[in-house]
Structure formats: C-alpha cells, structure tokens
Write a structure and sequence with these properties.
8-stranded parallel β-sheet, alpha/beta, TIM Barrel, 30% helix, Lyase, Ornithine Decarboxylase, Chain A, domain 1, 26% strand, 9-stranded mixed β-sheet, single chain
C-alpha cells in the first residue's frame, strides 16, 4: 500500500548495495571516495556512506554543509565557489566545529575575498582550484589554470592543496557515451596541471574528479586520488542510458496516480513540474530522453508534457493509453537529484514496510 501520491520511494536494499559497490570499487583502486550529498541530502544516507568507508562528503552550498555538519559529518568539501562575505563567514564558523573543511575557488577575485575573511577569523583554510575540463560551467580554463593556481598559492591564510573538476559525460567539449575516454581526458588534464605546478615548486596533494558515470573509470586510471560521484546512491534514467548502472540498480522511483483520462490518447497524473525534474532537456543527443519520467512496465508511454501539478502521459504512436482514473504508476525520474529536492521526505522501502526519511538539506540553496 503506497502513501498518498505523488511520492518518492527508495528501495533501501538497493541503496545499501549501491553504496557498498562504489566503496568496494574505490577500495580496490586505493582511491578516496567523497560522495556528493546533493543527490540525497540525507544525514542518514551520508552517515551510511561514511560508515562504508567514504573519507568525507561533498556539498554544493554552504547551507547544505551546515546541515551535514550539525548532524555530525566532520569532513566536508564545498565544491562550489562561495561568493559573498556572509557565506564565507558562515563556512568559517562551521570550520571551527568540524575536523576538516575544504572550499572551492576558481578566480583570483574570489580567492582574495576568501583569504581576507579567513585572515579576519585568525584561521588558515584549505582550498581547491576548480578546473573546467569541458563542461563550461564554473572552473578556470585549462590555459589559465597554472597561473591562477600560482597566484592563489601566494595568498595568505589559504593552503592550495588540490585541483578538482566536474566533467560529466563530455569529451573534447562534446557529449559522449564513452566513459573511459571522458575519464581519461578528465584525469589527464588534472595531472598535467599538477605537474606544471610542481615545476613551479607548488605541491598539489589532491586531484579530485569523477561523477557517477565517469567515477569508476577515473578510479581505474590511477591518475587521481579522489572521486566524487553522487547519483550512484539511487541512480536514475539518465545514468542507466549513460551506461552507469543496470536497470535493476535504480533504487528510487516516483509513485503517481492517474487523475484524469479526458481522451483515449492521453491521461493526466498528479505529478507535474513540482514533482518531476525538467532540468534535462528531452530529445537531445546523445541520450535522446523522451520523458521526464519513465513508467515502469510501460515502455510505450511518454511523460513529455508537464505543468506545475499536471503530468500528461501519451503513447509514442498516439494509440490509446488504456489507463483509467485511479491507476497507480511507478516512474523513474530522469534526474534523481532534482527529484529528491522537490520532496520533503523519501519513503524508505525495507523489509516489506515503508517509513519516512527526512530530506534534511532539502531546499538548502544558499
């Protein structure tokens, strides 16, 4: 019996298996695992990852990190540039309460601001420089990385201990489905920058790479000493189509109810854009996703139109859906991280029963 819909359910046996499998892979390659908690935003799951052997966690925002620190997580990397004195102050107050905090920088302006505030607190702080290895988001360009790292190395109160990147499935700045090729490029770029810095007398301790699809391949290269996958805890349809997991590894799904069947060719469910992530565009290479949610057991259905509270299902060929009002459907979201952040709870399915697991850092976007 499901809770009221729409709701997000996770098979906890699969969650535990996914955590164990990724940790075992890292142990095999003698590489540190620092999972990104933006996927689950749950203290309980973060603690499971630490207990399994993760060295610490990765967060996207200082507010996420504060929740994790308050819950007892003591080794945190905020892999996002903190811009603004108040955010940096908050991070430093947190740093005084945990064993290790690492901040990210990707510009000299940003690094100088961090340096000045760290000095005011009378502290020294560990930072990592983000490198853009092809995704074209945050991160200094490869061409400017060595000079920027050299400048940051001279700033007072900061210790430049690492380089990191988030590359995803990109090779030579183009989408790819080749994990090994993408990972090799990602890791080689970090190694080359690190070697260039070594020639300038700057020792880089940590090279951190690897999303869920590229993480295992990054670990196998032997070129980096840390990976930061996130979605592997639950996986999603994107990860499956990228070849990062098997269908049976996907641990989380959304349960939704058919609330209207106005015509044979389509049906409406009670989950729209406030339930299903829409941040990944449909029908784009290389994955050509056709739905915001993939209906388990009904490959013919398409959830390609959503409003706030309405999800419109139709068949690929326009034939009748054969759905009726009250039907309960299970759908795999295309992007689990955003799906989790749209909910207040995950319903954990374990030993034949369901229980609520709070999404502790839900909505922490600052």
């Amino acid at each position: 019996m499901y809770p009221e819909t729409p709701c997000l359910i996770a098979d906890f046996a699969k969650v535990r298996a996914n955590i164990t499998r990724m940790q075992a892979l890292c142990n095999h390659h003698a590489i540190a695992l620092r999972p990104h908690i933006k996927t689950h935003k749950s203290l309980e799951i973060a603690k499971l990852q630490i207990k399994a052997g993760a060295v610490g966690i990765t967060c996207a925002k200082v507010s996420e990190a504060e929740v994790m620190a308050a819950g007892g997580i003591e080794d945190i990397f905020i892999a996002y540039p903190l811009v603004g004195a108040s955010k940096i102050d908050r991070a430093l107050l947190m740093a005084k309460k945990i064993k290790r905090l690492i901040l990210a920088v990707d510009s000299l302006i940003g690094a100088k601001a961090v340096s000045q505030i760290v000095q005011k607190h009378g502290m020294e702080l560990e930072v990592r420089l983000e490198i853009d290895t092809g995704l074209r988001r945050t991160g200094v360009t490869v061409q400017e990385a060595v000079d920027l790292a050299t400048a940051i190395h001279t700033l007072p109160a900061l210790r430049l201990t690492g380089l990191f990147t988030f590359k995803g499935m990109v090779y030579e700045a183009q989408p790819t489905l080749d994990h090994e090729q993408a990972a090799q490029e990602e890791c080689s770029i970090l190694v080359n920058i690190s070697r260039a810095l070594s020639q300038r007398g700057i020792d880089i301790k940590d090279l951190s790479a690897g999303s869920t699809p590229t993480g295992p391949a990054c670990a196998a290269t032997g070129l980096v000493n840390e990976i930061r996958p996130g979605t592997y805890v639950f996986y999603d349809q994107t990860g499956f189509l990228q070849g990062a997991c098997k269908q049976e590894d996907i641990a989380a799904y959304i349960v939704s109810t058919v609330v209207s069947t106005p015509a044979p060719g389509y049906a409406v469910i009670d989950g729209g854009s406030k339930v299903f992530p829409t941040d990944i565009p449909l029908n784009q290479p290389p994955l050509h996703l056709h739905s915001y949610g993939y209906v388990i057991g009904r490959d013919d259905l398409r959830l390609d139109r959503v409003n706030e509270e309405h999800g419109v299902l139709r068949t690929a060929d326009g034939s009748p859906t054969y759905l009726k009002v009250g039907d309960i459907l299970q759908l795999i979201p295309v992007h689990i991280c955003t799906a989790v952040n749209l909910q207040n709870y995950i319903y954990i399915e374990e030993n034949g029963s369901l229980c609520k697991l709070p999404i502790d850092a839900r909505g922490m976007v600052v």
